[in-house]
Amino acid sequence: MIEMQDAAYGYGTEPLLSDLTLQLAPGSFHFLTGPSGAGKTTFLKLCYAELLPTGGSISLFGQTARGLSRDGIADIRQKIGVVHQDCRFLDHLPVSENIALPLSVTGKGGLAQDANLSELIGWVGLSARAEALPPELSGGERQRAALARAIIMDPELILADEPTGNVDWEMSLRLLNLLVELNKLGKTVVIATHDLALIRAAKQRVQARVLRIGGGRIMAAGADL
Amino acid sequence: MSIRDDLMALVRGDRGADRVVPRSGQSARLTFATSAAMAFLAVFAMALSMAAGRLADRWSDALAQSSTIRISAPPAEMESQTWAVLTVLEQTPGVDSARALSDEDQQALLAPWFGPDLPLEDLPVPRLIEITETRQGYDADGLRQRLAAEAPGAVLDDHNRWRRPLAEAAGRLRLLGWLALILILGATGAMVTLAAQSALSANEQVIRVMRLVGARDSYIAGAFVRRFTIRALTGATVGVAVGLAAVAILPSARDTAAILTGLSFSGAGWLWPLIIPPLAAATAYAATRIAAFRTLKGLQ
């Protein structure tokens, strides 16, 4: 699905990340942890071609990232659902339309999707807020709406960047449960977080691989997690 | 997406795409107002061009296929030289008919300047002979040479020295009208490009979100192109309507008409301004499409 071989990324001469060699296999569940500024978000951006590697190679769904055209990147992103820490909504559209945005922009929207959309909005617990505008939502509601938008295209891979960063513990567990459910449906999940309690909670529910980023490199985390 | 697909999408519309890009009031008003103003000016440029064309045709038609011979001779020789000229003209290929103006005709010609009581017989007024040419015309140089031999007091005026500069001036005026139209279209394109670039920059965050969820650049560009094309079309339609109304209420041409009083359309000419809105829309379409793809290329 995603394969990195000695991949590196950096601004100028100093690499932010280097020697990235790993594979994200279909159906796997990964946590990406490390201190703030270590490069977790940069790693995720490399996974959905928001950034391209400055060294080594990254293969996304069998295609070399650096060789992708603009349309190629768009096609890859239709297979990846991304949940950003800041959610990135279109504030002039109601929540339901924001969630359905991937369908609209790929021409897959329509009446046939309405039932699935309602079901999905219900699944993330936002039925009562479907017509609200994003600025009117609480932090937890925004994260759930972002998750719904990330999975509406039935992506093979879900990347979540600090999805529990702005929510309380109860909501964090709720979001985690949604992601675990998706993983059980066969989706590959990568969650970037510095919340170790969340990782421990997840390990009781799912077989997760924990990767730690530090010193510009990525490594498997210790057994203490 | 090809331009053909783009055009089909333009006609069909895409409610989803139209909603995704927020309505930006300033660029919308700018595009609408610019298109309306430019279309208004284009109507006048077109009217000017067509009026100049009609004037050129009128001057050409009025003076074409006719010429004049002026005979200045002592009174004793006037009659004989007149007959000699008429005889030469009878034998000249390309001359359809020739007629010596009578005293009454000449008096009528001079009346506007000297009044109706002009004693023509007391004045050394030259005799005028009016020539009507055939479609092929005659050889003016050859005729001049024969006249010089047969009637030394005869001077041929084939109106070319009047007709040519007038027709040339009118023709250039017509050209200027079309040039103004092209410049207006160019200015419209430039203004729409600026407005589109401004809208694209203002919506950079929207574009990033659309890309994040898998939108292709053609889809994003299409949303902007459709919006600006429709605005330009609507604005130009309003501008043409107002321009046509303004042309219609201009003073109409009379016999003493100059170019200003003849600034209007005639007959089917009133339909010509209807091509301005589609032209403005096509210009906006091209300008926005180029601007959108250029801006999107620059956005990482």
CATH second-level architecture of the largest domain in chain A:
3-Layer(aba) Sandwich
Give the % helix of chain A.
25-40%
CATH class placement of the largest domain in chain A = Alpha Beta
Instruction: Kindly state the percentage of residues in helix of chain B.
Output: 55-70%
**What is the string of helix and strand elements of chain B?**
HHHEHEHEHEHHHH
Largest interface by Cβ-Cβ < 8 Å: A-B, 26 and 22 residues
Structural class of chain A, please?
Answer: alpha/beta
Give the N-terminus to C-terminus distance of chain A in angstroms. 25 Å
Count every helix of chain B, treating DSSP H or I runs of 4 or more residues as helices. Answer: 10
Largest sheet of chain B: 4 strands, antiparallel
Question: CATH homologous superfamily of the largest domain in chain A - what is it?
Answer: P-loop containing nucleotide triphosphate hydrolases
- What proportion strand of chain B? 5-15%
Q: Flag low-confidence runs of chain A.
A: none
Which structural class best describes the helix and strand composition of chain B?
alpha+beta
Termini of chain B, distance in Å? 20 Å
Strand order of the largest sheet of chain A: 6-7-8-3-9-10
Count of separate structural domains of chain B: 2
User: What general form of chain A does the structure show?
Assistant: globular
Strand content of chain A: 25-35%
Outline the biggest β-sheet of chain A.
6 strands, mixed
> What is the topology, as strand order, of the major beta sheet of chain B?
2-3-1-4
